[in-house]
Design goal:
- With 389 residues, this protein is an alpha+beta fold.
- A hairpin with a 2-residue loop joins β5 and β6.
- The protein is globular and about 60 Å long.
- Bound molecules: 3,4-dihydroxybenzoic acid.
- The site of 3,4-dihydroxybenzoic acid has 11 residues, from β14.
């Protein structure tokens, strides 16, 4: 097989890259080790920055998004028994969209296939054949029992944090920066109406909680927990009691049947640079954020937009400066996303069992951030998405 850009991973980054390249007349093939059904069912964060929703709409994959997404003007932050609203729309004229990542993946897969795109699901033993210096890279894998090879000009490494692309880089080519947080999130999907029509981020003595949603009768709720929390120790009753306690009485909480539960680890990670030779990393393959603020998919979308434009410049006019600057262009946004995710995380989580200096400082910070127009504007512009050039 031969294509212009070989893509590893059919998550939001790989699929959107393939879609943007197709619109620019550039061919690509995606290989993915999971099944199509798995990719389309994996519940992930559901919050989309303003510009990402617009990019989906403008590139022809926003039809269902426009019908089904919930558009929010802002968020609530609750503490000390009070919920305060930060109105992004009023402050900066932007809104955010609630639309699960799996819906984005579903829409993009359907569109790529309708456009004649090639996505090979359930491939095994994928590896890169490339010396990271010269020549064309290749992707080797097994598909439907046969050894296969894709020869390409470039590779898009969109295969997530545990993917094969980043570890294929030569040892000294990359430097990783990371921070592991001493807590995780227990997340549930529940058949119940959310307590508010926008998200509520709760700072509470018992720990952080987040009240999000997927529909008028479908809630997505999270609790700060230990990083190695044993999910079997959390009965439905215990989860609801804890959610209710941490909501702190700011809204009534309606309980419902829990459809799904899981633990999300909390970690910040960035690799620099995001490229070597003809292999370009994008999305979680290059960086991950803790979920507070839901920047993961949004940063992935920013990477592939930069990358698609750089490939377009290469193929259209033989210009390689955008490709050469890919890493630097992405990293300036990535680090701002890291900074914001870290900041939201440290501000809203409990770091010790005592009410100590940091607890008091956090409360002062939340009070400030939910009352000063300048501070609220700063939160709003980061949360709703910093400008894309
Ligand atoms: C969701 C997840 C987040 O981490 C967040 O900050 C907001 C929303 C969600 O899954 O809905």
């Amino acid at each position: 097989m031969r294509t212009q850009v070989g893509i590893v991973g059919a998550g939001p980054a790989g699929l959107m890259l393939s879609h943007l390249l197709h619109l620019a007349g550039i061919s690509s093939i995606i290989v993915e080790n999971k099944s199509r059904a798995y990719c389309e069912a994996r519940v992930r964060a559901g919050l989309m920055e303003h510009w990402v929703a617009h990019m989906l709409i403008e590139t022809g994959v926003g039809e269902r998004l426009q019908r089904e997404a919930m558009v929010h003007d802002g968020i609530y932050i609750a503490f000390n028994g009070e919920a305060r609203h930060i109105d992004f729309h009023k402050l900066i004229g932007k809104q955010v969209y609630i639309y699960d990542q799996k819906e984005v993946v579903t829409d993009l897969i359907a569109r790529r296939l309708a456009d004649g795109g090639q996505i090979l699901f359930e491939v095994e033993d994928t590896s890169l054949i490339y010396d990271f210096i010269g020549g064309d890279p290749k992707i080797r894998f097994r598909h439907e029992g046969r050894e296969q090879l894709i020869e390409c000009d470039f590779i898009g490494g969109c295969d997530g944090f545990h993917g094969i692309c980043r570890p294929s880089f030569p040892d000294r080519a990359l430097r990783g920066y990371d921070r592991v947080y001493p807590f995780g999130w227990l997340g549930i999907l529940s058949e119940s109406p959310p307590p508010e029509n926008e998200l509520i981020y709760c700072f509470h003595e018992r720990g952080f909680a987040l009240f999000s949603m997927r529909g008028p009768d479908l809630s997505r709720l999270y609790l700060q927990c230990a990083p190695d929390e044993d999910i079997d120790r959390w009965s439905d009753q215990r989860i609801w009691d804890e959610l209710e306690a941490r909501l702190g009485g700011v809204r009534p909480l309606v309980r419902g049947s829990i459809l799904q539960k899981g633990i999300t680890p909390m970690r910040s990670y960035v690799t620099e640079p995001m490229q070597a030779g003809r292999v370009f990393l994008a999305g979680d393959a290059a960086h991950i954020v803790p979920p507070t603020g839901a920047k993961g998919m949004n940063l992935a979308m920013a990477d592939v937009r930069v990358l698609a434009r750089a490939f377009e410049a290469h193929y259209r006019s033989g210009r390689d400066d955008l490709l050469a600057n890919y890493s630097a262009t992405c990293l300036s946004r990535v680090w701002k996303g890291q900074r914001f995710s870290w900041w939201m995380t440290q501000m809203l989580h409990r770091h010790s069992d005592e009410i100590d200096f940091d607890t008091k400082r956090q409360i002062a910070e939340i009070d400030y951030v939910t009352s000063s127009p300048a501070a609220m504007t700063s939160l709003a512009e980061n949360y709703a998405g910093l400008p894309m050039e």
